[in-house]
Amino acid sequence: APRGAERFLEMVRGGFFSSRVALFRSVEGFLCQTGVAGDPHVHQRWRAKGAIADDAPWFDTADSRPMKRGYLSFAGSGPDSRGTEFFFAYRDLGLGQSPWEVPFGKLVGEDSFEAMDHWYTGYGDMRAFGGRAPEQRRIYEQGVAYLEPEFPELDYITSCDIV
């Protein structure tokens, strides 16, 4: 997924992850969504960049679970809708068949999987799906000022580097 990978690298180079990016939708055995900057001003700057175009699916279309454990994909809502939000797959999933859900990366090494398996999942899914995860709109508007007092158990990405 060259467009997805390039956007992610652009986010890393641009310091996006230095603003404490919450793992705000962490559903045990499903996925962990992240990618909203903890600083609302940083989030607005990135939203102003607009969405990126879809990437062509690259997997075997006969595979009913193309999103494998440890894969990363942007979280789009339809054609050409990917911005900065992305997710990690906790297990092999049926997601990834839409061009806005094409994996752009994957975790490597047992240490990475061990860390992922310890992310906090107690708030679960979005409220629309029966969970208690933070409201995305409020994260966009208030960032960590909203998250820290109301969701003290959340885990965060505090830095990301290219090695």
TrEMBL record:
Domain annotation PPIase cyclophilin-type: ranges: 1-144
Transmembrane stretches, start-end: none
Listed InterPro entries: Cyclophilin-like_dom_sf, Cyclophilin-type_PPIase_dom
A molecular-function term among this protein's GO annotations: peptidyl-prolyl cis-trans isomerase activity
UniProt protein name: PPIase cyclophilin-type domain-containing protein
Species of provenance: Zooxanthella nutricula
Biological classification of the source: Eukaryota, Sar, Alveolata, Dinophyceae, Peridiniales
